[in-house]
Amino acid sequence: MTRIIKPRQLTELKNYIALDASWHMPNSPRNAEEEYLSKHLPQARRWDLDKIASPHPDGFVGHMLPSPTIFASACSKLGIEKSSQVVVYDTVGIFSAPRAAFTFKAMGHDNVAVLDGGLPAYEKEGLPTESGEYTAQPSQYPIPTLQSNFIKDHIDILNTIDKKDAVILDARPQPRFSGAAPEPRPGLSSGHMPGALSLAFPQLLQDGQLKNAQELKQVFENTIGKEELEKVLQGKRNVVTSCGSGMTAAIVALALEVIGGHSAIYDESWTGYAQRTNSPIVKD
What we know:
By secondary structure, the chain is α/β, with parallel strands linked by helices. It has helices spanning 32-38, 68-77, 97-106, 118-124, 154-163, 174-178, 213-224, 226-233, 249-258, 269-273, and strands at residues 3-5, 16-20, 45-46, 85-89, 112-115, 151-152, 166-170, 197-198, 205-206, 209-210, 238-242, 264-266. The two termini are 36 Å apart. The mean pLDDT is 96.
C-alpha cells in the first residue's frame, strides 16, 4: 500500500528520494517549475508530470501515464533505483503528488510514499528547504512492466458504462459533474458519464491533508453505499476513478487504497471523454 507519511516522519527515513511532483491547473497563475527552483525539500528532484508522460493519441491531455520506457528513463536521470524509497509531494498539500505515486505503483514500484500536506505542512514544522535544481547521479532503472489493473482507456470506460461492471467515481466539483458549471478548459462540455457518481476530491481532505481512515471510509459509504463499499473492499466490485484530466482522480484512488480498496484510473478522464463524439454525456 502507498504509505502516507507525515513531515516529521521523514527524519526517521534513511536514503529516501524526495520528488517534487507539483502541478497546477491550466488556468492557474502558479508555475510549478519556478516554485521548485525557489524552494524544495533537501535534495528533492523535480518530477514533471507533463513531461514524464506519453503523448495522448489525439492530443487531448498533456500528462498521460508514461510508457515503461519513458518512466525508466526519467527514473534513471533522477538517480532513482528499483529499490529506492521514493517520497512524492506537491506545493499545494495533497493535489498532484498522488498522481505521481500512482505512476510509480502502476509501474510496479511499490516503495513509494506521499508526504501528507506536502510542502506547506513540511514548512509548518520548521523543517529545512533548499533552492535551485538538484542534480543527481544517474542510475540504471530497469524497464518495468505496466500493471494493467491500474489504468483504463476510452474503450474500457465505454464497456464499463455498458456492462455496469464497475463503480465510476468522478473527482471533479459537483457543479461540473452535474453540468451546472462549465469546465475550466474552453469549449469542453461539462456533465458526467452515465452511471457515474460524484465524489469531489476536497471531501477527502482537511486542511490540505488526507482525512483519517475512518473519515475516508464514511465519505465512500456516503457516496456508494455501505454494502457496495464492502464489496469493493472485498475485491468483489471494481472501481474506476476519473476527474478532469486524470490528476485528482489519483486522490480518490489513494484514499480508497488507504481504507483497503483498489481502483483503476481512467487516464484521459473527462478532458478526453467529452471530446469524443461517441461518448454519452449526462446533465442533471
